[in-house]
């Protein structure tokens, strides 16, 4: 029984800043002529990002009680608890807005059809959590089954899709609402470490909602879920990690990650295509998680892709940055709305996260 991703919609906070402005924020707390200062300027200039969104409103000027910056522009290093309080407050309306947008975008489904809600986030915690507020604020049936996937990182949309597919295969009447939301900017903490500089140069805030069910797609079309696979890159555990510190969550993003992906990505793609009888030549569209410009460059090199093969992923990176688990859904959402993506096109989607974990999905546009 085929299962479909029927609709995907994205939401970002109102506040945005250019990549040049983000670089200036980092330089406020560093010696501009130090090695770290020079790295910030070079990395931000060549990031492939033009704009990012954030729930932090005092990046440009003091606001919200000067949470992150004093009136003099000094970074205040708020505690993890303070940051998480902001997450609890700011995430709720964004989760609900993304959920509503996904339901509204799927003419085959109404709010009362939803049987399962899966929320995904690794940038904050609160209970009752976002799954609860989506059900309550949107007036979904109180008996809706709720699940939350936490702290898995940038690849977590794929475990959520795998759960949704299993629910729909077990119950043909199941309608699963998935919402991924990350407020990565809440964990900003100026640092002279290159891993920190790399992480803060790409991460941003955003949310995406999708509807998954076994119902036949309507006139707007959908993506049929053909295969979902997971693997772990060898000898890479220390290259990407996500931990909780006293001053926010800390990302380890090694400069080796793009090279590790380049060395392993061809085998990963073959592992998902071979069981379904496909080869790389059958893939019409590539929905690669834009974790950063270097990651996209090295994945393209490892797969020997055409120069324009990752244009959609690069556009998401340019306009939004890396929003962790939500980002690959931004890419799939763009493809669902793109008239250039034709019926029967095969789409290979991929995301990467701590471990180094690689998640892959094969979809067909219907």
Q: Radius of gyration from the CA trace?
A: 20 Å
- Gross morphology is globular
Q: What CATH architecture label of the domain at 223-365 applies? A: 3-Layer(aba) Sandwich
Average pLDDT rating = 93
Terminal residue distance: 15 Å
Provide a concise account of the structure shown.
With 366 residues, the chain is of the alpha+beta class. Helices cover 34% and strands 24% of the residues. It starts with a strand and ends with a strand.
Question: Can you offer a commentary on this structure?
Answer:
With 366 residues, the chain is an alpha+beta fold. It is 34% helix and 24% strand. Strand 12 (346-353) and strand 13 form a beta hairpin. 48% of the residues are buried. The mean pLDDT is 93.
Protein traits:
366 residues, alpha+beta, Peroxisomal Thiolase, Chain A, domain 1, 9-stranded mixed beta sheet, two-stranded antiparallel sheet
Chain-wise SSE layout:
Layout: E1 4-11, E2 16-18, H1 19-27, H2 35-45, E3 51-53, H3 80-104, E4 116-121, H4 130-137, E5 145-150, H5 157-170, E6 175-183, H6 194-202, E7 205-213, E8 223-232, E9 240-245, E10 248-253, H7 257-273, E11 285-288, H8 293-303, H9 311-320, H10 327-336, E12 346-353, E13 357-365
Helix pairs in contact: 1-2, 2-6, 3-4, 7-8
């Amino acid at each position: 029984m085929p299962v479909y991703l029927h609709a995907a919609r994205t939401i970002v906070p109102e506040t945005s800043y250019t990549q040049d402005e983000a670089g200036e924020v980092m330089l406020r707390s560093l010696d501009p002529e130090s090695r770290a200062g020079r790295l910030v300027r070079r990395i931000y200039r060549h990031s492939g990002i033009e704009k990012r969104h954030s729930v932090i409103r005092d990046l440009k000027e003091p606001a919200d009680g000067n949470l992150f910056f004093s009136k003099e522009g000094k970074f205040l290093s708020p505690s993890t608890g303070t940051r998480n309080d902001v997450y609890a407050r700011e995430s709720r309306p964004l989760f609900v807005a993304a959920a509503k947008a996904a339901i509204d975008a799927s003419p085959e489904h109404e709010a009362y059809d939803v049987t399962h809600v899966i929320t995904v986030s690794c940038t904050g915690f609160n209970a009752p959590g976002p799954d609860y507020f989506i059900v309550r604020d949107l007036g979904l049936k109180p008996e809706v089954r709720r699940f939350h996937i936490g702290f898995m990182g940038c690849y977590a949309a794929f475990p959520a899709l795998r759960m949704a597919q299993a629910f729909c295969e077990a119950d043909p009447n199941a309608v699963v609402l998935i919402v991924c939301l990350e407020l990565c900017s809440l964990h900003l903490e100026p640092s002279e470490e290159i891993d920190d500089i790399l992480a803060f140069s790409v991460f941003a805030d955003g949310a995406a909602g999708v509807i998954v069910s076994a119902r036949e797609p309507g006139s707007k079309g959908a993506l049929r879920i053909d295969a979902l696979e997971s693997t772990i890159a060898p000898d890479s555990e220390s290259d990407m990690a996500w931990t909780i510190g006293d001053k926010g969550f800390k990302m380890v993003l090694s400069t080796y990650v793009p090279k590790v992906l380049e060395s392993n990505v061809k085998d990963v793609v073959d592992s998902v295509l071979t069981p379904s009888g496909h080869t790389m030549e059958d893939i019409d569209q590539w929905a690669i998680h834009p974790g950063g410009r270097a990651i996209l460059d090295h994945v393209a090199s490892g797969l020997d892709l055409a120069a324009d093969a990752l244009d959609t992923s690069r556009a998401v990176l340019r306009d939004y940055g890396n929003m962790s688990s939500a980002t690959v859904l931004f890419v799939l959402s763009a493809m669902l709305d793109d008239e250039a993506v034709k019926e029967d096109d095969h789409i290979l989607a991929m995301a990467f996260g701590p471990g180094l974990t690689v998640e892959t999905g094969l979809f067909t546009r219907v």
